[in-house]
Design a protein that fits this description.
630 residues; alpha/beta; Rossmann fold; 4 domains; six-stranded parallel beta sheet; five-stranded mixed beta sheet; 22 strands; 37% helix; 16% strand; globular
Length: 630
């Protein structure tokens, strides 16, 4: 064993490696991305690692590896589980042989997601065991246990860390490489009665799953991840799980320091109540026996958790079955907020209200010596300075001036095209939906030119099906592929169009142009969006054509290319009209002492501002064709 300072996702990755994982697949999505990347960095060549084209593909790769006896993990975020849900629901019925973990990172807030959906509820729906780590160290341990449980019960197992576990850091003891589990892979054994899902097999397996779940719950309930602590004589209890357990413990520590009373201890007080604490580390199947022990003798319980009132509902069911007249409060009663993240401060407030600690006296004491930091400035996300997507949106906007158009967005950096002054994203639902939604708008809005913007990575992940639908059903739309040669939103991971795999192999790039031509598009053209005049001309030409046509705006992300010669403003020529600011909204262009200036630390020399300036007051950067000048 040795000690390392690790991010939560890195700890989960090392835990998977210590468990002898053989095959790793996934699709990048914050906050899950670093797990697969950390395994790839630490790979000595014995582990197969891939960024799959989407979550469904990744799960199916991992499932087949498990059928062969390999230990596998597939990584994704909570909305990615929607994409993978089809094979996952069937896999729950078929079962696995080698241990298989589905690592799904939830994003309360949400901080970088479309939804706050709760994977604990999905695990219950799919009838799969769920592990819910409350700390970095627990993530490291839990994933190793998850592989063992998966093999013991021949079922996929979900590991559900949340953002504050995934991206937290801690120093912990981890195994040396010679201590890693060595998995003996048997290989795939043909058995159509086991591996081929038919209605008859599904019916039989459904019954087997329902019989097995209570046993799995009893096994998981005995793990140290689930526990009851605090006073045996308490009449009030707190129930929690995941990161909220860490918040509750920290909040009680603060209250103890400020009030002098240990709420989780056995000492009695006339002023403060003793408390019993229940932690559900494996929320499904729910540790019912431990929950009964927790509820014994209690009069009321506060449930502190993020996202769904999952633990709250489970405790209500347990209390009802055992006829305990206990009042259980939480999200369902509005005692704990319904949406967003918990914090130590919000949990502390919940505890004080529930335990009837005077907000006027005790809370003043609690916060008396705490510095009152200033409020953070509001900083909405924007496209980076020099981002080629800004030029692409602007070209379409200029080309469509005076015409009725609808602009359908998608999931990626380019969703930020909705911000002013561009205002070029009218809808955004989920990955790949922009392409098919443009078709739906076109059916109803026949006098409208419908555009669908999609990134190169998203095109491969979930865009191609929509394009086929458009061609087959003879829709009229303009597909705009924003090809910046990376998966920029999640940290610049490779994809089929980049020509590199996570195993380090250099492979042939998959051509978006050839794919679209093979699908039967009437027009496919490629243009550099930084060549504004040509880009505008191309958009006008393509928009006037019937059927399904595509423009590929091809220019690399600023994070994967070197900056060009930076742009500068000639003060003697600048008329201070601020058109560059009003039209583009580039973070590098600001006003200083009443004059427009370009921040040299931010400018990447894309040169789009040069094309916008009406008096030629901007020099440097790129010129038409992509070269630079002084």
């Amino acid at each position: 064993m040795h000690k390392e300072f690790l991010m939560g996702n890195e700890a989960i990755a090392l835990g998977a490696m210590a468990a002898g994982v053989n095959v790793v697949s996934g699709y990048p999505g914050t906050p899950s991305t670093e797990v697969l990347e950390a395994i790839a960095r630490g790979n000595d060549g014995s582990i197969y690692v891939e960024w799959s084209v989407n979550e469904k593909a990744g799960l199916e790769v991992a499932a087949a590896a498990s059928y062969s006896g390999a230990r596998s993990i597939v990584t994704m975020k909570q909305v990615g589980l929607n994409v993978a849900s089809d094979p996952l629901m069937s896999l729950a019925y078929v079962g696995v042989k080698g241990g298989m973990v589905v690592m799904v990172a939830d994003d309360p807030g949400p901080i970088s997601s479309q939804t706050e959906q709760d994977t604990r509820t999905f695990g219950q729906f799919a009838k799969l065991p769920v592990f819910d780590p409350s700390s970095v160290a627990e993530g490291y341990e839990m994933i190793q246990t998850a592989f063992e449980v998966s093999e013991q019960y021949h079922t996929p197992v979900i590991l559900r860390p949340t953002t504050r576990v995934c991206h937290a850091y801690a120093s912990l003891e981890v195994k040396d490489r010679e201590e890693y589990y060595r998995n003996e892979i048997e290989g795939f054994v043909k058995d159509s009665n086991r591996w081929v899902i038919f209605p008859r097999l599904s019916y039989r397996r459904h019954g087997e799953i329902e019989k097995a779940l209570p046993g799995i719950g009893e096994t998981l309930g005995k793990l140290s991840y689930n526990k009851v602590e605090g006073s045996r004589l308490a009449t009030v209890g707190i129930a929690c799980g995941g990161i909220s357990y860490a918040y509750v413990k920290e909040a009680f520590g603060i209250l103890k320091e400020k009030t002098g009373f240990d709420f989780l201890g056995e000492e009695n007080s006339d002023k403060y109540p003793n408390v019993r604490l229940f932690k559900a580390g494996t929320p499904h199947p729910f540790p019912e026996n431990l929950a009964v022990e927790f509820l014994d003798g209690l009069e009321k319980v506060l449930v502190v958790e993020e996202l769904d009132p999952y633990i709250e509902r489970q405790l209500m069911q347990v209390a009802g079955e055992h006829r305990n007249g206990i009042r259980i409060e939480g999200k369902l009663h509005g005692v704990v907020k319904h949406a967003g993240e918990n914090t130590v401060e919000s949990v502390q407030e919940n505890l004080c209200q529930f335990l009837q600690i005077s907000m006027g006296n005790d809370m003043d004491n609690v916060n008396a010596d705490a510095a009152c930091p200033p409020e953070l400035p509001v900083r909405p996300p924007v496209l980076c300075a020099g981002c080629p997507h800004r030029a692409s949106f602007y070209a379409v906007k200029k080309a469509m001036e005076g015409r009725k158009a609808i602009f359908c967005g998608d999931i990626g950096c380019y969703t930020l095209g909705n911000a002013m002054p561009l205002d070029m994203v009218d809808s955004c639902l989920c990955m790949g939906a922009g392409i098919t939604m443009a078709q739906g708008f076109g059916v109803v809005e026949k006098d409208t030119t419908c555009f669908a913007f999609v990134g190169d990575s998203t095109f491969f992940a979930s865009g191609m099906t929509g394009v086929v639908n458009a061609v087959y059903n003879q829709h009229d739309m303009v597909l705009v592929v924003l090809d910046n040669s990376t998966t920029a939103m999640t940290g610049h991971q490779p994809h089929p169009g980049t020509g590199k795999t996570m195993m380090g192999d250099i492979v042939n790039k998959v051509s978006i142009v050839k794919i679209l031509e093979a699908m039967g598009l009437t027009k496919v053209c490629t243009v550099n969006p930084l060549d504004l005049d040509e880009a505008v001309r191309m958009v006008k030409e393509v928009a006037d054509l019937p059927g399904v046509k595509a423009i590929i705006f091809k220019s690399p992300c600023i994070a994967v290319t070197k900056p060009e010669v930076q742009c500068t403003i000639h003060k003697d020529r600048c008329i201070n009209c601020k058109k560059c600011i009003r039209e583009l909204g580039c973070p590098a262009i600001t006003v200083e002492d009443g004059k427009v200036v370009i921040e040299p630390d931010l400018c990447f020399g894309c040169g789009i501002c040069k094309a916008v300036c009406p008096v030629g007051a901007i020099d440097g950067g790129k010129v038409a064709g992509g070269s630079s000048n002084e």
